[in-house]
Design goal:
Elements (H helix, E strand, L loop, with lengths): L8 H4 L6 H4 L23 H22 L9 H26 L4 H33 L5
Amino acid sequence: MIMPMPMSPDSMNNNSMDMDDTATHMTFYGAKMWWFCLRGGQTAALECTLLALVFVFSLAVAVEILAAPPIKPRMRPLSGGLIQAAVYAVRMALAYLVMLSVMSFNVGIFITVVVGHAVGCFFVKYRAIAAVYRAADAAAPLKA
């Protein structure tokens, strides 16, 4: 006969939290309450929500832009390595902030992050293609 495990002493204590207080959403949902927009227990206005979405969008764009290597890296090895390491550290910090935002399981934040990454990728690719196009124009002979 299999016996159930006894409950821990902390869970039997009356001072412990109820299960309702510790429950989290494990699926995507559309929340109207944002943890950083709370004021006195009430949800903030639409402006605060839009500001939060713009902030997360900007983080996602910045992560993509910082992931692109510089076009003309002409530096000494030590200074270039230090600068690239600093940019990498900033990029990883921003990437982890974006990841934590997505882990809120909010559909609006998820869509905003995906669009932000796409826009950031567009900026990076546009810059690279424009550089190649300018180089091709400079190398082409002028037509008279």
